[in-house]
Amino acid sequence: MSDAATMSMEPKPRVYFEKIGDVEWELHEARLDIYDELKLWDENPRLQTKLPVSGISSEADLEAALQNTGGYENLRRSIDDLGQMEPIYVWRPNDHGKYLVLEGATRVSILRELDRKHLKGIKEGKYRYAKVKILPSHFGEKERAILLARIHVRGTGVRAWGRYIEAKFIHETVVADNGQPALMNVTQMAQYMEKSVSWVQRLRDAYEFGSRFVEHVDDDEAEQLAARHFSTLEEISKAKLIGSQLRDYNNAKHDDLRTEVFDMVKNEVFKEYRDARFLKDFHDDPDKWEQLKSGEKHIASRLAMEVKSNASSVKAKIASLEQQVRRTIERGEVDFNDDDINSLQLAITHMHEQIHPGVRPFRVALKSITQSLSEASMADVKALDKDEMTDFQEALEYFNGLVERHGGVS
Asked: pTM for the full model?
């Protein structure tokens, strides 16, 4: 068979048509040498909290950081058994130099590790080449952000970056910085990611809050600490009432409060982010707030249990009853009647007896009757039927008789 015939039997490289942003791009598939033709991206968002504080000196540092990311070992075993299943995305601005790995750095790192492992034997050379999709040279920064958001922010499992990296990526994409305009606005980002605008805004604002925490900690490990406690920081930033105060960065009167809260996070007083949901309850209780400020590790967990226990008390139920009744009426779910009102009135009577020991329930009821009579209208009178008026007049005559018989009241 001739060389020409042999060449004709080789499959042609695939061409992918992918809509990224507002454009459908033509991406050509290729096999590239993992050492000679590919270069890892040192601005890879996934690595921002994994790189050594001292910086990187080689691609070996990047590979070492990738090996510490979540899901690396599972993906390595999969590639070792089955090979690379999905192509990665690469780009270079011209026809010279290596291709930059924009998406798929973990797979490249694994291929390099496996290639160095199998220098001899049946797997020798099996991992030397990576399957890639080549992005055009005019593929811009905005399109890059859309591509990464589509894969890693919308993605799950090994593809997911983690909450802190997602928030940082969103903030850097939608917020202008150092005189440079934002790549896109919040609405566009939400559209490209297929998320709600509020979801994008929440992570944008949470990262801003987290960055203030990094400034407060002010040491080499600050960003790693922010990433580790980001769920707690996010929960704090949206806490009822107190969250908006903490995010009022231009108001100096909240600076001390923010310092106290950041010290709490740094000292790990919150065992998990759910404990931070009770931040306002903690702040409203001076004793609990002082305990949090003490810095005792995970103390917020115990204090949260106390708050939740109190929330199930009779006092808490009474406090929320008015709103529950109002919402029920607005939704038209229940038709309340006189029996329901009488039950509530009896409960009020018992409460008055507890507040004013020795005072008969009649005096409490009389105050209520007196107020009702003083506020009665003609429409109220016309709405009464004959039996109701008869009962009232008889009761009033009986009461007046008691007053006359005992010489009035003192």
From this structure: 0.70
